[in-house]
Amino acid sequence: MSVSEQDQRGGINVARLLMSFGPLLFLVALIVVFTLLKPSFMDPINLFNITRQISITGLIALGMTFVILTAGIDLSVGSLLAFCGMVAAVVAKGGAANTLSLSTAGTQGYGWFAALLAAMAVGAAAGGVQGLIITRLKVPPFVVTLGGLTVFRGLTLTISNGGPISGFDASMRWFGTGLIGPVPVPAIIFAIAAVLCHIVLRYTRYGRAVYAVGGNAEAARLSGLRVDRILVSVYIIVGFFAGLAAFVLSARLNSSEAVAGIGYELTVISAVVIGGTSLFGGIGSVGGTVVGAALIGVLQNGLQFNNVSSYTQSIVIGLILILAVAFDRWLKSRVRR
Amino acid sequence: MRGGADVSCLGEQPLPAAEAASPSPVLLAVEGVTKRFSGVTALSDVSLDIRAGEILGLLGENGAGKSTLLKILSGVMPPSSGRIVFDGADYAPSSPQDAKRLGIVTIYQELSLIPTLTVAENIFIGRAPTGPLGLVSWKRMERESRDIIARVGLSIDPMTPVSALSVAEQQLVEIARALSLKSRLIIMDEPTSALTETEVQRLLSIMNRLRQDGVAIMFVTHRLEEASAICDRMTVLRDGRLAGHLDRESGPIQLPRIIEKMVGRAASELYARPAQRAVAGDVVLSVRSLRTVRDPEAPHAIVLDGVDIDLKAGEILGVAGLVGSGRTELARAIFGADRIADGTITLGGKPIAPASPADAIALGIGLVPEDRKHQAIFAALGILPNFSVASLGRFSNGFGVMAEGRERDALSGFRKMLSIRMASPEQAIEGLSGGNQQKVILARWLARDPKVLIVDEPTRGVDVGAKAEVHQILVQLAARGIAVMMISSELPEVLAVSDRIVTMRRGRITGEMPGVEANEEKLMELMALDRKPQDEGMAQYEGQAR
Predict the structure, then answer these.
(1) Ordered alpha helix ranges (H), B219-371
(2) pLDDT in tens, A95-116
(3) Which domain holds residue B122?
(4) What residues does each domain of chain A span?
(5) Which residues pair with B236 in a beta bridge?
(6) ipTM of this model?
(7) How many domains are there within chain B?
(8) Are residues B360 and B257 in the same domain?
């Protein structure tokens, strides 16, 4: 989780350091506070619990980082997650008909691998379609994906007839509930994906292009980048991750719910923004997003641990989001001076 | 020079009859105004005056101080010293709103109307007529604005949204608004640059009518023949100082007199011309009958109207033209950034049709755009990614992973070659001076070994010392065999580095001559005057060039 590759710029500047490590410091402070309040917070079981909790929204947040780096937004991810989850369930179980039969696991479906591929393919395709509408028809991402939000939810309800599709075989459930050593499998999937995304954004020409398009689309075009293709690609990426996250979630719950992922888009965007990625594009990092996702996860878990009601939790998380961005702005204004 | 004859198209403009016999009192007097910006004197001891019912031309090259004077008069900033008297009282507006209230309205090139509101709303913005309940009275607003726009000859529905109007109509709406504010002095900054010939005629006749109504107009323009046709007097600025006043005597002010005042200095003062280099090589890029069409998304853009141009290996072709001459549009059309309607482009003998900058770049063309901040720089990124963005393929391996070592080596090579002053490749490009930013952008293209490099206003926003360095770099590049096309509105710059110069005006090439034979007067005449290619003057220049 390196938050600040840009920091070899030389010159030790407290404000600049804070800017790079601010969210990380805040995360550490939260962990310390929660531990002081209840030492059992630091119990490995609880910590791994947190990693399992954040891995679903975290996976989508990785994709969302690409989108927001290009100054775009994707509001459809929550609905797309439900849709992909339903697709995975249908493939895994060989149809939607056996919605309510709970223990037909592994008897007629196509197995977890086909289900995973289907979920990721459908997610990527859905993202691609939205990306094409954004670039070809010049409809703002906010509008296209807002439309996508209701369309995908509607498709999900249509497939599933409104109910869940439950009961998967053990090999599929392992991706949600399994452990490798003490570490939950979803957390491992999230970690691998995060490292890959970090490498892509930081070390590849594609990553350079994403930052360039988000930083100045016109200059990127005049530098020979195929701006529209890159824009479409980031929506494919976020769709892909929504599909992957859907598979993991279904595996964990042993069920694909038609109402899964409602409001996830907000958690995901919050994680990316708290992690320091600018909504105006061109600035941000995967490391930041991981910290942002962890911050939200720790906050939720810690508050729950201290018996704070879920109503109060959402108040606190909302305020933290605003504070994080305000703090970032304030630091930037100090650095400029 | 035979400039006077060329304005025959404007000859029908009624001339003010014997104004000199009984001059109206001075409305605005600028006395010894100086403006300094942290050590730089932008305006030095400038005086001028303007009377009611008079059109005063304010002329000067880029950087002569016109915009500084305009900003002072329109209340954007105060002068450092000097005095301004308006209507008999000291004039020191605290803001543009204050200037308006005092009776001076400035109409800028970038119009200040709100496109989504109607004409009537724009005219009455902030002072809408209200009915008995304090609510806006749309009826009154519509009626009154209809009368107001009629004064400028507009017969459109005042309830039309401004976005539906042409640039010329929007300009007239602004003038109408100024009139409704009871303005005594209207300052127009380059009002004709975005207009068609017919629209220019209409604007000039309205200016004429306003003059008869006793309004004073300050007409800031590059278009000499328009100024000559309409202005009673002219004030010419040069290098921030007063170059002189010109008065209309028996007829319009003749163009040679204006050009002489505007140029007035040896071109060699700032820019040393490098020794004439070896003769250029073969034609690399050839453009024939290039035409573009008006883009509905950019209605202000100039349309190319049959441009022919040849660019040879190892030469610097200077393209001189005023703002709005089509020089930038030519560059963008060749570069695949704008759509071409008609005509052919050949590169190395083969016809090409770049549909995007990516295509043009792949063919070996590079473009350093005119607006560095918006079109070239990635402000949030470091120097390294800014440098390599156009060559990501060259600096990455087969898996698309960046070969950062190679990338850094290349940058450090160019850092030496172009003497880019920077702390490290990670430094934010925003932290560099304009000149060093421009060098990074030049390095961006050099990393691709282009056959053709088009540089548009290469020294805009670059300080004087670095300008000479940029010029030296361009000369070096040409010496290495690159065909360089340099677009610039600074004539001394064009003269300093070009092996050959073409002039553009209104989307056409108006002349061509070898760099050594060019001077500011010749170029200014070709840039600012409407000439048909069959004119003797043109033929003469063409004869010399070929």
Answers:
(1) 224-230, 255-263, 327-334, 357-362
(2) 665 544 545 444 567 888 999 9
(3) 3-16+53-76+94-263
(4) 52-285
(5) B59, B244
(6) 0.85
(7) 2
(8) no
